[in-house]
Amino acid sequence: MAEGYALPLLLFAGFRSLIDDLHAELAEQGHPDVRPAYGFALQAVGRDGVTPGELGRRLGVSKQAAGKTVDRLERLGYVERADDPDDGRRKLVRLTPRGVDVLVRSAAIFDRLRAGWAGRLGADRVDELEAALREVVPAGGMRLDAAGWFGS
């Protein structure tokens, strides 16, 4: 039987492998400045945009930390600040076409990386691995606050 600490280390190493490969490909495809935390933030912004305060809540960080992330993403051209059409006093953070592009490319790269794992391990084993993880991950387990969690 394996030591208990091996499981989280292996899961993290698998995650890290996928993320490192993703970012290497993104750099080759014109997105060399994207960092893993930015991916979480761009996902949290979503299609409809978000207020900076809500972005902080979604990421599990302070409004100030979310604002710094927005500043960086805005400088890189991935998001923009715009007036909220429902409340002129508020600003929304929205994806720019460059932000949408990096998310679309990321999805395609993740599909290729998964296919690579399936080619190496067998499609059935990868399907079983994903099914097993879904059984142990709490409901609503796809949280975007990992960046804040790692940083705390």
Automatic annotation (TrEMBL):
Pfam families named in the record: MarR_2 (PF12802)
Protein name: MarR family transcriptional regulator
Keyword DNA-binding: yes
Keywords, sorted A to Z: DNA-binding, Transcription, Transcription regulation
Position of the signal peptide: none
InterPro entries (alphabetical): ArsR-like_HTH, HTH_MarR-typ, MarR/SlyA-like, Tscrpt_reg_MarR-type_CS, WH-like_DNA-bd_sf, WH_DNA-bd_sf
The species this protein was found in: Streptomyces agglomeratus
Matches recorded under Gene3D superfamilies: Winged helix-like DNA-binding domain superfamily/Winged helix DNA-binding domain (1.10.10.10)
PANTHER family for the chain: MARR FAMILY REGULATORY PROTEIN (PTHR33164:SF99), TRANSCRIPTIONAL REGULATOR, MARR FAMILY (PTHR33164)
Listed GO MF terms: DNA binding; DNA-binding transcription factor activity
Gene Ontology process terms (BP): response to stress
Domain HTH marR-type: start-end pairs: 1-138
